[in-house]
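User:
I would dearly like some help making sense of a protein record. Take your time, and here it is.
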Amino acid sequence: DDPLVFGQTFMAGSLNATEGSEAWALTSHGIAEKLFTVNEAGDIVGQVADSVSRVDDNTWDVTLKDGYMFSDGTPVTAERVAAALEELNAANPAAQSSLGALTATASDDLDPLTVRIESAQPTHIMDSVLAEWAFPVYYVNDDGEFVFTGPYAVAHFEEGDHMDLIPNEFYIEEADRPNIEIKKFADGDALAEALQAGMVDVAFHLPIDTLPAIREEDGVHTKSFEVGYSYMMIHNLCRPQMEDVRVREAIDLALSRNELSQALQGGRGTRSFFPDNT
């Protein structure tokens, strides 16, 4: 069968999970997973890991799910996960932001599925930390290729253009997944044109101003959903007139949150530093 073609304005720049934000992109593509993740209800749940337990302020034990496999059939072991965590922490500053430096170990003194993490900075929410995008689970095979655990495996990768994905045969419900091609487009307008021309089956992250014309296309269905981005305006207190709290209050009262959201064609206004639903 022909693959489903997903058009996007972003695509992983490489398969090296230690570089920049590649781990985030690879996870969003369905290639990589983390030890923990956030479910639809907003709860932290195990993904590759089964559970985590605190040893002391700076030490935690992570228990992996039994029988988990990488997409090439290699077992997910405590040793491989520990090696990935240490490499990520050493190579990517994003993997240091919550814990500082860390060591991850698997030893005969621990359960075979247990990874012990010792961090320079204490945390009381290790499962939340390990759900951050900077901590994907992977190993590097003898050919120097990064291999992951997600529902899809990479069959072909052409940097800056497209990647061909096939179902991970060692993942649950593998037979229900189609082959996928992720095609990168220069911008949202080019992606919208490709959708209207029938070049893609799914177009992700379309500009809002293209939606009216797209909704008129036969056989095209659009779906909008909220994401967790917040845009804030803050008074510039370096300007003398802003030092008067009455001026700031007057500006606050004069601004219409509803009109702002309508001008942006999306989102919801709030008067709070922390928006609704956060």
In short: Residues 78-91 form the longest helix (14 residues). The helical segments are 22-28, 78-91, 126-129, 188-196, 211-215, 245-254, 257-264. The chain has seven helices and 13 strands. The radius of gyration is 23 Å.
